[in-house]
Amino acid sequence: MDSLRGEKALFSAWLVALVASLSVLFIGEVLGQTPCSLCWFQRAFMFPLAILLGLGLGLWWRDLAVGRYGAVLALAGAAIALWHLALYIGLIPERIQPCAASGPSCTDFNQLLLGVPIPALALLSFLAIAALCALSRKGAPA
């Protein structure tokens, strides 16, 4: 596999991470919706992805091996997003904490973007980033 294809995959992963990070900042800071604790944990994995992948692509390191670190971060974030989505749709019979009437709520219509729940969008974003990072590493030297 040539390095150009790896760079394109990493650039796409970085773009997904950047758009996801900017989107949740917009939702929180501009729209004023306070994230729940699970949303915060997901952000703890998404924000570094935008920085790490951007730096690895050429802003600083120009190192395609950054895809291995991106994949690990993305899969950890995906696990949290999957748990969040399972709570959201009711597969896990536990109330999303601290989603309450006095605080943020992950169960109302404010948490839908184009009809899709934000936890589902987070899961899709993390999985796309992990797949693109893995694709960037396929055939690359260890």
Task: Give an account of the 3D structure.
The chain has 142 residues and is an all-alpha fold. The protein has one domain: Bromodomain-like, CATH 1.20.1550. Helices cover 67% and strands 3% of the residues. The protein contains 4 helices and 2 strands, in the order αααββα. It has a two-stranded antiparallel ribbon. A hairpin with a 2-residue loop joins strand 1 and strand 2. Helix 1 runs antiparallel to helix 2, helix 1 runs antiparallel to helix 4 and helix 2 runs antiparallel to helix 3. This is Disulfide bond formation protein B. Its main location: membrane. Pfam families: DsbB (PF02600).
Q: Which keywords apply here?
A:
67% helix, mainly alpha, two-stranded antiparallel sheet, 4 helices, Disulfide bond formation protein B, single chain, globular, Bromodomain-like, 142 residues
Quick recap of the structure?
The chain is mainly alpha-helical and 142 residues long.
The shape, in one word, is: globular
What does the main sheet amount to?
A: 2 strands, antiparallel
Question: What is the tally of beta strands?
Answer: 2
Structural class, by secondary structure, is: mainly alpha
The CATH architecture designation is Up-down Bundle
Beta fraction = under 5%
Amount of helix: 55-70%
Q: How confident is the prediction overall: mean pLDDT?
A: 82
Biggest sheet strand order reads: 1-2
Please, what is the oligomeric state? single chain
The number of distinct structural domains comes to 1
Q: Indicate the CATH topology.
A: Bromodomain-like
Low-confidence stretches: none
Report the order of strands and helices: HHHEEH
DSSP summary: helix tally: 4
- The radius of gyration is 16 Å
Main location: membrane
Protein name: Disulfide bond formation protein B
Pfam families: DsbB (PF02600)
Keywords: Chaperone, Disulfide bond, Electron transport, Membrane, Oxidoreductase, Redox-active center, Transmembrane, Transmembrane helix, Transport
